[in-house]
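User: Hello! My lab partner asked me to get a predicted holo structure for this protein. The small molecule is adenosine-5'-triphosphate, SMILES included with the sequence. Please write out the structure tokens.
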Amino acid sequence: MLGYVRKNISEVEYHTWFAPVKNLGVQEGSLVLGVRNSFAQEWFRKHYLELLEDALRSLGAQNPQVSFQVLPAAQDTLLSLNDPPPAPSRPPSSSTGGPSAQDQAENRKRLNPKYTFENFVVGPNNNLAHAAAMGVAESPGKAYNPLFIYGDVGLGKTHLMHAVGHYMSERFPDKRIEYVSTESFTNDLINAIRDDKMTQFRNRYRSVDLLLVDDIQFLAGKERTQEEFFHTFNALYENHKQIILSSDRPPKDIQTLEGRLRSRFEWGLITDIQSPEYETRVAILKMNAEHNRIDIPQDVLELIARQVTKNIRELEGALMRVVAFSSLNNVPFSRGVAAKALSNIFAPREVKVEMMDVLRQVASHFNMPPDVIRGSGRVREVVVPRQVAQYLIRELTDHSLPEIGQFFGRDHSTVMHAISKVTEQLGKDQEITASVELLRRKMQGLDDEDLDA
Ligand SMILES: Nc1ncnc2c1ncn2[C@@H]1O[C@H](COP(=O)(O)OP(=O)(O)OP(=O)(O)O)[C@@H](O)[C@H]1O
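Assistant: Hello! Below are the structure tokens for the protein in complex with adenosine-5'-triphosphate.
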């Protein structure tokens, strides 16, 4: 099966997703594959189910069925950044005069073990950069050289660079990988000049197979460093060695960068990373929670994702804060707890609610599928939830009556009618009043009694 799969996807994909998969045998006619976490489980369902079924079919299965099961927690918790890096997964080649085990260990030491492709959530904000990094990982020195990734702070530039490094060091344990910040490069250079060790300096940087340089914008205004980097760049480039650069802005906007360097930075591929969309932020939080074995409800993750929108490092920090807060106060996770935990750092932002959120909450409150509420049913059991949903959307979001109408496949006068109907019943009909009150508190993140206790 794996042979079939491998022929149909890229090597990077294969190593990222299929290498860690375990065969758990056949249960009730379905082949069960063990995957690392529920993120991987979802990914497999979405992206590889058909391929795996085809693979089984190619082996003669009439009615191929594949399912995925999350394996029991592995040892390597991914967020413990300070742990020693994992041991190399295969023995180093010693007799060929290749790099020593120590070299390899050195390579890995500089790479953050958490920053792998597998742990990188792909969304519309970063999919081009991700694809480019995958391309480079697959054909270093050939696909795009240099690869220039730019974007604001905390959006995953370093993560992607390291992912290429990990990937290469796993597939080609003999390759030399150097990750350096522009600041360290500059300091190394200053030390080398001072200690008269320029030859060593040049050997070090010009003999690598993959050079990753972070925050290249800091070359601006440093003439001697630019000069040295120019020669390093040329030496590597001419030998088809891969270079990846990160920066907070594109080459054209780096002031006082020599023209010859700027043009070299533009030779390969320039790609950017933008701030993540809401769904990507939720997915990142979910993955983080899982890696840390934290069982935290989806609606709490959603609240965090609405609070922190621009920087993924801060997003991760916010999650940790909520976790710490709830454990220190010995209260279970809830939206209220999260709102409270974050209220000191983030300017209290009104929790922004979307129409779909309201619909989902109302649906779950009345215990019926959202589509039924939006559907055409006219019985009271459906009409009341529909009116309540429209009423709450009007109250909690900025959407206009026609927009709400469109969301429900109705015109604005129907919505107006629904709103006045609910308004009329508030205070009179106990059930409706209680439902509206409860749902409103829930969506504003005020549903927490634990905190008051
Ligand atoms: N798409 C993603 N999926 C999962 N985690 C991500 C993603 N993007 C960023 N992160 C996480 O966000 C944090 C910040 O990312 P990183 O350090 O790579 O940002 P950066 O763009 O290099 O920032 P800086 O400019 O400050 O160096 C890291 O912990 C990283 O793992």
